[in-house]
TrEMBL record:
Residues in RNA polymerase sigma-70 region domain copies: 10-76
SUPFAM superfamilies found in the cross-reference section: Sigma2 domain of RNA polymerase sigma factors, Sigma3 and sigma4 domains of RNA polymerase sigma factors
Keywords carried by this UniProt record: Sigma factor, Transcription, Transcription regulation
Organism listed in the record: Solirubrobacter deserti
RNA polymerase sigma factor 70 region 4 type domain span: 104-150
Family of this protein: Belongs to the sigma-70 factor family. ECF subfamily.
Protein name per Swiss-Prot or TrEMBL: RNA polymerase sigma factor
Gene3D superfamilies in UniProt: 1.10.1740.10, Winged helix-like DNA-binding domain superfamily/Winged helix DNA-binding domain (1.10.10.10)
Source species, domain of life: Bacteria
Pfam family, one: Sigma70_r4_2
Length: 166
């Protein structure tokens, strides 16, 4: 009997009870199936350590470690999400960004393309000219016109001037 056949027999003998164990570890049927799959993947990887007389406790040990690792991963994920919530910009910043994006949408497409490549993508004037297949002077003039138009829009009585700079 080869490794694959012995392992299939091991799976057939223990999978159902390990699935119940995994369910009791996590309380969710889909997650329990995932834990079981990971358990048997790890067991296959470590099949050289398997001794037939201790197969059942060996599998339970692997399943226990897999469950611990999944809980630790879930805690880390939740903590990372909490940290992300803590660094969100204030609502006033969101409003300013929305207003700026609304103003940008009023630009002619050719000027908006230059702003996007120079300001957002960080391309140089020369790189922007190559990307758009236009002369460098045209990039400079379009960017200048875009800045002027945005400056005029941003200087309305409800918003201060100077929102867009180099």
């Amino acid at each position: 009997m080869n490794d694959r056949d012995r392992f299939a027999e091991l799976y057939d003998r223990h999978a159902a009870e390990l699935l119940r164990f995994c369910f009791r570890q996590c309380g969710n049927a889909a997650d329990a199936q995932d834990l079981l799959s990971i358990t048997f993947l790890e067991a296959w990887r470590r099949r050289g350590d398997l001794r037939p007389e201790t197969a059942r406790p060996w599998l339970y040990g692997i399943a226990t470690n897999v469950a611990h690792n999944q809980r630790r991963l879930a805690r880390r994920h939740a903590a990372a999400l909490d940290r992300l919530k803590a660094v969100r910009p204030p609502a006033s910043h969101d409003q300013q960004v929305r207003e700026l994006l609304d103003d940008l949408r009023t630009l002619p497409r050719r000027e908006l393309d230059v702003v996007a490549l120079c300001a957002w993508a960080g391309l140089s004037y020369e790189e922007t000219a190559l990307a758009l297949e236009i002369p460098v002077g045209t990039v400079r003039s379009r960017l200048n016109r875009a800045r002027r138009r945005l400056g005029e829009l941003r200087a309305t009585p409800t918003r201060p001037a100077g929102a867009l700079h180099d």
